[in-house]
Write a structure and sequence with these properties.
Length: about 350
């Protein structure tokens, strides 16, 4: 058995999810072009990785969508792993049959804080705390975001994760004074997960990586996008939906239900996602045909019959509440034959 974790973002700051999966498997995440020719199973975290595994003839190709973004084209995957039922429902019918819901992956070091009050006290951050990533500043501009934050009730603390965006940091330093906001900046360094652990709610978009990071640390969400991922997080009770022109109203609502949203985030169990992924991979490997690899030795016989198709559907793929589903189909087919 030879497994591989493939990602175009391997060994970069965007590779948090592939790094977490590879670490659990005691492997190193690699870029698609570095795929070992001996691989029998590949975890593919993006479309180029899946294409490379398919081209290389890897028997089991598992498409992993580790966040709440819309799944990439996974037609060539033997299994598809998504974060929520809503994202599975958004897949084409043929792909949906091979999809499993496992949850979003929690990156290494991104976990709920056991002592949120101690962490807030040590960082001089008064609760409640709102976290705004730089992607929101880039999308909507510092002026619009600062104006809405200034209108939020109760004088919450605002944490700005500026990532590695120097321009965003300079813009906030220049423009924040005068808005009356108790705010702090921090960069996406090794300490970032600790600062995220201070957040009660995070304002972002479901298709951005930050939504999965918020769930990993047990924070509620305010989401400004209209995507299947946003639907999933709203249905789960984690998210409050918003539009930027009335963002302050939605933040007030989210702060009012933050205890419920935080518990809903914990219930999604990001910390257990990798264990669920590995279990599915083990089952997939056991079903994979033991085909030879490489050049034949002497005369290698070819199989006369094609292998029976495997039923890779998740256990809940049969319609709920319909125990006689198969019998009903047979009855309908018999009635159709009579009419014909």
């Amino acid at each position: 058995m030879s497994w591989a974790v493939l990602s175009v973002h391997a060994r970069t700051t965007e590779g948090l999810w592939s790094a977490a999966l590879a670490d659990a498997l005691e492997l190193e995440a690699v870029r698609p072009e570095a795929l070992s020719p001996d691989a029998t199973l590949a975890f593919c975290l993006d479309e180029p990785s899946l294409a490379r595994a398919t081209q290389a003839g890897v028997a089991r190709r598992i498409a992993v969508i580790p966040t709440f973004r819309r799944p990439f084209d996974s037609a060539a995957a033997t299994e598809i792993l998504v974060a929520h039922d809503t994202l599975r429902d958004a897949l084409p019918a043929r792909q949906k049959e091979r999809a499993h819901v496992v949850g979003a992956i929690a990156p290494l070091g991104w976990a709920p804080r056991d002592a949120r009050n101690e962490a807030q006290e040590s960082a001089s951050v008064a609760p409640p705390a709102i976290l705004v990533p730089s992607s929101m500043i880039a999308e909507h501009g510092a002026t619009a975001i600062l104006l809405q934050l200034s209108l939020v009730s109760g004088d919450p603390t605002v944490l700005f994760d500026i990532g590695l965006d120097v321009e965003a940091a300079e813009a906030l330093r220049r423009m924040a004074p005068g808005h009356g906001i108790e705010g702090y900046l921090f960069a996406r360094t090794d300490d970032a997960s600790a600062y995220w652990g201070l957040a009660d709610i995070v304002v972002t978009r479901a298709h951005d990586n930050e939504a999965a990071l918020a769930v990993a640390v047990g924070a509620g969400l305010v989401l400004t996008d209209d995507t299947p991922g946003a639907d999933a997080l709203e249905v789960s009770g984690v998210a409050t939906r918003a539009i930027v022109s009335t963002l302050a109203v939605s933040i007030d609502e989210a702060l009012g239900r933050r205890d419920v949203a935080q518990q809903a985030a914990l219930d999604l169990d990001s910390a257990g996602t990798i264990a669920r992924i590995i279990e599915i991979a083990k089952r997939a490997e056991s079903r994979a045909p033991a085909l030879p690899r490489g050049l034949p030795e002497g005369l290698e016989p070819l199989a006369k019959e094609a292998p029976k198709p495997q039923d890779d559907r998740p256990p809940d793929a049969t319609p709920e509440g319909d125990d006689d589903f198969e019998a009903r189909i047979e009855d309908e087919l018999a009635a159709l034959k009579k009419r014909l």
